[in-house]
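Sample intake sheet
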Amino acid sequence: MDRHFLIAVSNQKSAIFGIRFVADFFTDKSLIKSTLFYSTPKPPAVWEEEKTLQTELQQKDKEQKIARESLQTLESAKKESVLMGLLPENIDLKVQPQEFSKVGDIIHEGEKGSYDAVVLGRRGLSMIEEAFEDSVSRSIFNDKFTFPLWLCRSSDPSRQNVLLYVDGSPSSFQMADHVGFVLALEDRHRVDLMISSSLSDDSPEIDRYVEILKSHGLPEDRFQVRWKEEINPARQILKILDKEPYAAVALGRTGKEPNLLARLFRGPVCSVLFSELDRAALWLCP
Protein backbone atom coordinates (compact mmCIF):
# COMPACT_ATOMS: atom_id res chain seq x y z
CA MET A 1 0.00 0.00 0.00
CA ASP A 2 1.28 3.45 -0.90
CA ARG A 3 2.06 6.00 1.80
CA HIS A 4 0.25 9.22 0.91
CA PHE A 5 1.47 12.51 2.38
CA LEU A 6 -0.01 15.97 2.23
CA ILE A 7 2.99 18.31 2.01
CA ALA A 8 2.36 22.01 2.57
CA VAL A 9 4.39 24.33 0.35
CA SER A 10 4.70 28.08 0.03
CA ASN A 11 6.81 30.60 -1.82
CA GLN A 12 9.34 30.52 1.01
CA LYS A 13 12.43 28.33 0.63
CA SER A 14 12.03 26.94 4.16
CA ALA A 15 8.82 25.20 3.08
CA ILE A 16 10.88 22.81 0.93
CA PHE A 17 12.20 21.02 4.04
CA GLY A 18 8.99 18.99 4.24
CA ILE A 19 9.54 17.64 0.73
CA ARG A 20 13.22 17.09 1.38
CA PHE A 21 12.56 15.08 4.54
CA VAL A 22 10.10 12.75 2.80
CA ALA A 23 12.54 12.24 -0.09
CA ASP A 24 15.46 11.59 2.27
CA PHE A 25 13.56 9.27 4.62
CA PHE A 26 12.29 6.74 2.08
CA THR A 27 14.49 4.54 -0.06
CA ASP A 28 11.78 3.08 -2.33
CA LYS A 29 10.14 6.21 -3.73
CA SER A 30 7.72 4.15 -5.86
CA LEU A 31 5.58 3.57 -2.77
CA ILE A 32 5.40 7.26 -1.84
CA LYS A 33 2.57 9.45 -3.08
CA SER A 34 2.63 13.17 -2.32
CA THR A 35 0.04 15.88 -2.69
CA LEU A 36 1.70 19.29 -2.71
CA PHE A 37 -0.74 21.75 -1.20
CA TYR A 38 -0.78 25.53 -1.43
CA SER A 39 -3.30 27.77 0.32
CA THR A 40 -3.49 30.96 -1.71
CA PRO A 41 -3.60 34.31 0.08
CA LYS A 42 -6.76 36.35 -0.18
CA PRO A 43 -6.63 39.57 -2.22
CA PRO A 44 -7.45 42.74 -0.28
CA ALA A 45 -11.18 43.04 0.33
CA VAL A 46 -13.22 45.69 -1.47
CA TRP A 47 -15.71 47.55 0.71
CA GLU A 48 -19.31 47.40 -0.45
CA GLU A 49 -19.53 51.16 -0.95
CA GLU A 50 -16.37 51.05 -3.11
CA LYS A 51 -17.62 48.39 -5.51
CA THR A 52 -17.84 49.44 -9.14
CA LEU A 53 -17.39 47.57 -12.39
CA GLN A 54 -13.76 48.72 -12.45
CA THR A 55 -12.99 47.60 -8.89
CA GLU A 56 -14.64 44.23 -9.53
CA LEU A 57 -12.51 43.74 -12.65
CA GLN A 58 -9.40 44.73 -10.69
CA GLN A 59 -10.34 42.27 -7.95
CA LYS A 60 -10.75 39.49 -10.50
CA ASP A 61 -7.36 40.33 -12.03
CA LYS A 62 -5.75 40.10 -8.59
CA GLU A 63 -7.38 36.74 -7.96
CA GLN A 64 -6.19 35.39 -11.30
CA LYS A 65 -2.68 36.67 -10.67
CA ILE A 66 -2.62 34.97 -7.26
CA ALA A 67 -3.86 31.73 -8.85
CA ARG A 68 -1.14 31.85 -11.52
CA GLU A 69 1.59 32.55 -8.99
CA SER A 70 0.31 29.78 -6.73
CA LEU A 71 0.40 27.26 -9.56
CA GLN A 72 3.91 28.40 -10.46
CA THR A 73 4.94 27.84 -6.83
CA LEU A 74 3.53 24.32 -6.92
CA GLU A 75 5.15 23.54 -10.27
CA SER A 76 8.48 24.74 -8.91
CA ALA A 77 8.01 22.58 -5.79
CA LYS A 78 7.22 19.58 -7.99
CA LYS A 79 10.44 20.10 -9.96
CA GLU A 80 12.37 20.23 -6.69
CA SER A 81 10.60 17.05 -5.56
CA VAL A 82 11.58 15.19 -8.73
CA LEU A 83 15.19 16.35 -8.38
CA MET A 84 15.14 14.87 -4.87
CA GLY A 85 14.01 11.52 -6.24
CA LEU A 86 10.22 11.54 -5.87
CA LEU A 87 8.43 10.12 -8.90
CA PRO A 88 6.54 12.71 -11.00
CA GLU A 89 3.63 10.34 -11.60
CA ASN A 90 3.16 10.06 -7.81
CA ILE A 91 2.95 13.81 -7.22
CA ASP A 92 -0.37 15.70 -7.25
CA LEU A 93 -0.76 19.46 -7.03
CA LYS A 94 -3.59 21.17 -5.19
CA VAL A 95 -4.31 24.90 -4.96
CA GLN A 96 -6.82 25.95 -2.32
CA PRO A 97 -8.17 29.50 -2.18
CA GLN A 98 -7.70 30.50 1.44
CA GLU A 99 -10.83 29.79 3.43
CA PHE A 100 -9.57 29.91 7.00
CA SER A 101 -5.97 30.69 7.93
CA LYS A 102 -3.19 28.95 6.00
CA VAL A 103 -2.69 26.36 8.72
CA GLY A 104 -6.47 26.02 9.11
CA ASP A 105 -6.77 25.19 5.41
CA ILE A 106 -3.95 22.64 5.70
CA ILE A 107 -5.61 20.91 8.66
CA HIS A 108 -8.99 20.96 6.91
CA GLU A 109 -7.50 19.38 3.78
CA GLY A 110 -5.60 16.85 5.87
CA GLU A 111 -8.78 15.59 7.46
CA LYS A 112 -10.80 15.68 4.25
CA GLY A 113 -8.22 13.88 2.13
CA SER A 114 -7.47 10.86 4.35
CA TYR A 115 -3.70 11.30 4.13
CA ASP A 116 -1.29 9.17 6.15
CA ALA A 117 0.40 12.31 7.51
CA VAL A 118 0.48 16.06 7.01
CA VAL A 119 4.02 17.32 6.47
CA LEU A 120 5.07 20.88 7.33
CA GLY A 121 8.46 22.44 6.67
CA ARG A 122 10.19 25.01 8.83
CA ARG A 123 7.43 27.50 8.08
CA GLY A 124 4.96 25.11 9.73
CA LEU A 125 5.90 26.04 13.29
CA SER A 126 5.29 29.73 12.76
CA MET A 127 2.01 29.00 10.98
CA ILE A 128 0.79 26.97 13.95
CA GLU A 129 1.87 29.71 16.33
CA GLU A 130 -0.07 32.23 14.23
CA ALA A 131 -3.16 30.05 14.54
CA PHE A 132 -3.33 31.00 18.23
CA GLU A 133 -4.30 34.48 17.06
CA ASP A 134 -7.09 33.34 14.75
CA SER A 135 -10.39 32.24 16.31
CA VAL A 136 -11.47 30.24 13.25
CA SER A 137 -8.21 28.31 13.23
CA ARG A 138 -8.53 27.64 16.95
CA SER A 139 -11.97 26.13 16.38
CA ILE A 140 -10.56 23.86 13.66
CA PHE A 141 -7.75 22.70 15.95
CA ASN A 142 -10.21 22.07 18.76
CA ASP A 143 -12.14 19.61 16.58
CA LYS A 144 -10.80 16.08 16.70
CA PHE A 145 -8.71 14.98 13.76
CA THR A 146 -6.88 11.74 13.31
CA PHE A 147 -3.82 12.23 11.13
CA PRO A 148 -0.25 12.65 12.37
CA LEU A 149 1.69 15.88 11.84
CA TRP A 150 5.30 15.80 10.69
CA LEU A 151 7.26 18.97 11.47
CA CYS A 152 10.49 19.13 9.50
CA ARG A 153 12.83 22.03 10.22
CA SER A 154 15.72 20.39 8.38
CA SER A 155 16.70 17.14 6.71
CA ASP A 156 19.86 15.12 6.50
CA PRO A 157 19.87 11.94 4.36
CA SER A 158 22.51 10.38 6.60
CA ARG A 159 20.18 10.39 9.61
CA GLN A 160 18.11 7.29 10.18
CA ASN A 161 15.83 5.46 12.62
CA VAL A 162 12.93 6.69 14.74
CA LEU A 163 12.95 7.39 18.48
CA LEU A 164 9.45 6.54 19.73
CA TYR A 165 8.49 7.96 23.13
CA VAL A 166 5.69 5.93 24.75
CA ASP A 167 3.68 6.65 27.87
CA GLY A 168 0.58 4.44 27.64
CA SER A 169 -1.73 7.21 26.42
CA PRO A 170 -4.22 6.60 23.56
CA SER A 171 -2.38 9.02 21.27
CA SER A 172 0.88 7.20 22.05
CA PHE A 173 -0.60 3.91 20.86
CA GLN A 174 -1.89 5.71 17.80
CA MET A 175 1.62 6.97 17.07
CA ALA A 176 3.10 3.48 17.50
CA ASP A 177 0.62 2.25 14.92
CA HIS A 178 1.63 5.09 12.58
CA VAL A 179 5.34 4.38 13.01
CA GLY A 180 4.81 0.68 12.34
CA PHE A 181 2.80 1.44 9.21
CA VAL A 182 5.29 3.95 7.82
CA LEU A 183 8.36 1.79 8.50
CA ALA A 184 6.86 -1.54 7.42
CA LEU A 185 8.20 -1.18 3.88
CA GLU A 186 11.28 0.86 4.76
CA ASP A 187 13.82 -1.49 6.33
CA ARG A 188 16.56 1.15 6.41
CA HIS A 189 15.10 2.43 9.69
CA ARG A 190 14.60 0.76 13.06
CA VAL A 191 12.46 1.91 16.01
CA ASP A 192 14.00 2.63 19.41
CA LEU A 193 11.46 3.01 22.21
CA MET A 194 11.86 5.36 25.15
CA ILE A 195 9.61 4.26 27.98
CA SER A 196 7.90 6.82 30.22
CA SER A 197 8.62 6.63 33.94
CA SER A 198 4.88 6.09 34.40
CA LEU A 199 5.32 2.58 32.95
CA SER A 200 7.17 -0.21 34.76
CA ASP A 201 9.55 -2.56 32.96
CA ASP A 202 6.96 -5.38 33.05
CA SER A 203 3.99 -3.16 32.20
CA PRO A 204 1.46 -4.82 29.86
CA GLU A 205 1.41 -1.58 27.84
CA ILE A 206 4.96 -2.30 26.65
CA ASP A 207 3.81 -5.67 25.29
CA ARG A 208 1.02 -3.84 23.48
CA TYR A 209 3.51 -1.52 21.76
CA VAL A 210 5.52 -4.56 20.68
CA GLU A 211 2.41 -6.23 19.27
CA ILE A 212 1.43 -3.07 17.39
CA LEU A 213 4.82 -2.90 15.69
CA LYS A 214 4.76 -6.64 14.92
CA SER A 215 1.28 -6.32 13.42
CA HIS A 216 2.78 -4.22 10.64
CA GLY A 217 5.36 -6.87 9.85
CA LEU A 218 8.33 -5.35 11.65
CA PRO A 219 10.66 -8.16 12.75
CA GLU A 220 12.01 -8.09 16.28
CA ASP A 221 15.47 -7.04 15.14
CA ARG A 222 14.04 -3.73 13.88
CA PHE A 223 12.73 -2.43 17.20
CA GLN A 224 13.93 -2.41 20.77
CA VAL A 225 13.25 -0.83 24.14
CA ARG A 226 16.39 1.23 24.43
CA TRP A 227 15.77 4.16 26.76
CA LYS A 228 14.05 4.74 30.08
CA GLU A 229 12.68 8.19 30.83
CA GLU A 230 14.69 10.28 33.27
CA ILE A 231 13.65 13.40 35.19
CA ASN A 232 13.25 15.62 32.13
CA PRO A 233 12.38 13.45 29.09
CA ALA A 234 12.38 16.31 26.56
CA ARG A 235 15.89 17.40 27.54
CA GLN A 236 16.93 13.75 27.64
CA ILE A 237 15.72 13.29 24.05
CA LEU A 238 17.59 16.40 22.91
CA LYS A 239 20.79 15.10 24.54
CA ILE A 240 20.32 11.70 22.88
CA LEU A 241 20.03 13.46 19.52
CA ASP A 242 23.39 15.11 20.15
CA LYS A 243 24.94 11.64 20.02
CA GLU A 244 22.53 9.54 17.95
CA PRO A 245 21.51 10.65 14.42
CA TYR A 246 17.81 9.82 14.57
CA ALA A 247 15.79 10.95 11.56
CA ALA A 248 12.61 11.50 13.60
CA VAL A 249 11.25 11.66 17.12
CA ALA A 250 7.68 10.33 17.39
CA LEU A 251 5.22 10.76 20.22
CA GLY A 252 1.58 11.19 21.02
CA ARG A 253 0.72 14.41 22.73
CA THR A 254 -0.54 14.36 26.31
CA GLY A 255 -1.80 17.00 28.66
CA LYS A 256 -5.12 18.13 30.05
CA GLU A 257 -5.42 21.47 28.28
CA PRO A 258 -8.83 21.95 26.62
CA ASN A 259 -7.63 22.35 23.03
CA LEU A 260 -5.07 20.86 20.70
CA LEU A 261 -2.96 23.97 20.27
CA ALA A 262 -2.47 24.29 24.00
CA ARG A 263 -1.61 20.60 24.29
CA LEU A 264 0.95 20.82 21.49
CA PHE A 265 2.70 23.75 23.09
CA ARG A 266 2.26 22.94 26.79
CA GLY A 267 2.36 19.15 27.00
CA PRO A 268 5.21 17.98 29.27
CA VAL A 269 7.35 16.62 26.41
CA CYS A 270 5.82 18.08 23.25
CA SER A 271 6.29 21.70 24.21
CA VAL A 272 10.09 21.62 24.47
CA LEU A 273 10.56 19.43 21.40
CA PHE A 274 8.09 21.54 19.44
CA SER A 275 10.21 24.59 20.11
CA GLU A 276 13.77 23.22 20.11
CA LEU A 277 14.01 20.07 18.02
CA ASP A 278 15.79 21.07 14.83
CA ARG A 279 18.01 18.25 13.56
CA ALA A 280 15.33 15.54 13.45
CA ALA A 281 11.71 15.70 12.37
CA LEU A 282 9.02 15.72 15.04
CA TRP A 283 6.07 13.39 14.47
CA LEU A 284 3.00 14.18 16.57
CA CYS A 285 -0.31 12.38 16.92
CA PRO A 286 -2.96 14.81 18.13
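Comment: The first helix runs from residue 16 to 25. The first strand starts at residue 3 and ends at 8.
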